[in-house]
Amino acid sequence: MTYAVTDNCIACKYTDCVDVCPVDCFYEGENMLVIDPIECIDCGVCEPECPADAIIADTAPDAEKWVAMNTKYAALWPVILSSKEPLPDADDHDGTPNKFETLFSEAPAVQA
What we know:
Layout: E1 3-5, H1 16-20, E2 26-28, E3 33-35, E4 55-57, H2 63-74, H3 90-93, H4 99-102
């Protein structure tokens, strides 16, 4: 089993999950995070830490598409090792439907 980040992370990018991950398997895009399913050790500590409920187990409905998406972008984006402030309008975007189709950015995070 592994975990994956879903589209509810888009335009929110809460990073509470990053600090609890024991293996640093989160990767950062411009407006969301993903989990590398190969690096994920299936501990599950990240799932309850996400304020947007954007992390699911690979056994959840529709998980296959999110695992594939996380796999793709984990290979392209930089690793994130510590939490950061969420995006400025995160609370306004939390729960917005269809964010992947309307708000997703393929760009990696800008490294400071």
